[in-house]
Amino acid sequence: MATLYIHIPFCKQICSYCDFYRVGAVSLIDDVIANSHVELEQRKEYIANKPLTSIYFGGGTPSLVAPHEIEQIVDHARRLFDCTHLTEITIEANPDDLNDDYVTQLAQTSVNRVSLGIQSFDDEALQLMNRRHNAHEAEEAVARLKRAGIDNISIDLIFGIAGYGGKSLEESLQRAIALGVGHISAYHLTIEPNTRLGLMTRRGEYTPIAEELSEREFQRVHHTLTAAGYEHYEVSNFALKGCRAQHNSAYWTGVEYLGIGAGAHSFDGKSRTWCVSTAKEYANGIFHYEGEVLTIRDHLNEYVMTSLRRIEGIDLSYIAECFGEGELQRIEQASKRWLTEGVLTRHGSNLAIPAEKFLISDAVIESLFD
Ligand code: SF4
Questions:
Q1: 118 CA to middle of ligand 1, Å?
Q2: Which of 36, 210, 234, 294 fits 298 for a cystine, CB–CB 3.0-4.6 Å?
Q3: Taking 80 as the threshold, does the pLDDT of residue 24 lie above it?
Q4: At what angle do helices 135-147 and 100-107 cross, to 10 degrees?
Q5: pTM score
Q6: Start-end ranges of CATH 3.20.20.70 in the chain?
Q7: In the chain, where does the domain assigned CATH 1.10.10.920 lie?
């Protein structure tokens, strides 16, 4: 099995918290799309003979690309790969791109899942984050998708925004639940140095929230969404029954993937490569790659990290089988403290972090690293 990721690194407006690789030169989109086909053709051997289970258009802002061009890439993938197991095709979208025309055309493509960057239902918080849409437009976008028959919808929310916890956060959660979407991703705002919020923080114009408040907001998100029937199945992800993100779940379980586009990463089970071309180079058909071969230690640490970020946790018998008894004993020893504190639970050979404690998963994971 394998998955395919297509990166569209363009944004019309830069969000104040965003540190992803993206550019504002939307005039390059046509050339970048044309070269996505070229790169796809050149790199098809990377996941040759592996049935494709999902395709994900991420960004940046994939909804800046016309639906028929998205479909042409899917068609191209269908010609190159075994797609008999292809069940999920997702596009990330900004709510304000989803006008009637766009949604009508999108509904005629093979895309069957939309991931919407809503972030908040508080217009002031959206302004602080320099988002292009407001709360009403976000709700309209979801309604439009559903009317067009696209009802496999995920929305992104951000919490931990100074001044927008409490009632503001609760209202965002309730409005998200009221939309009846199957999947919600909720991320804590992080302040990266090279962002507008990073600059505002240095100037004293923004003060990140205290750790204690982060914990309370995380608990609010967890309890509100789980009470509404969402399973908290990964640190930042909640799903109604049957609505887990297949593409992301494949990443977390070590499935191989081919990434196409400037900045996209690929993984073949043993090594990782990534395209370091700028969008301009990419638009001119210049593809540069860097990469790394994963050591046994890398594999072990990745398994620990991705497993403990999911509700399924670690399978200790898998650790013993693949990495040896020594590693099993080391992990069992390092986990004792967390088991006593109730931050880890153990059932047979399963070691997991209860979902309500996911916020401190980084500390647990680091302590179990080789
Ligand atoms: S839309 Fe997404 S990728 Fe673009 S600037 Fe905002 S957060 Fe970053």
A1: 11
A2: 294
A3: no
A4: 40
A5: 0.97
A6: 2-251
A7: 295-370
Could you tell me how far CA 33 lies from the centroid of its own chain? Answer: 22
Q: 45-78 burial, b if ≥16 CB within 10 A, otherwise e?
A: ebbeebebbbbbbbbbbbbbbbbebbbbbbebbe
pLDDT in tens, 86-99: 999 999 999 999 99
Residue 129 CB–ligand 1 contact under 6 Å = no
Q: Which CATH architecture is the domain 2-251 placed in?
A: Alpha-Beta Barrel (3.20)
Residue in this structure with the two tokens 């292809």, named with its chain if needed: 86
Over the stretch 242-301, which tens digit does the pLDDT of each residue have?
A: 999 999 999 999 999 999 999 999 999 999 999 999 999 999 999 999 999 999 999 999
Looking at residues 303-307, what average pLDDT do you find?
97
- Beta-bridge mates of residue 260: 6
| Average per-residue pLDDT for the chain | 97
Of the candidate CATH numbers 2.40.440.10, 1.10.10.920, 2.60.15.10, 2.60.120.620, the domain formed by 295-370 belongs to 1.10.10.920
Residue to probe by mutation, ligand 1, list 8, 13, 15, most atoms within 8 Å of CB? 15
Query: Separation of 164 CA from ligand 1 center, angstroms?
Result: 20
Q: Which two tokens stand for residue 7?
A: 């990166």
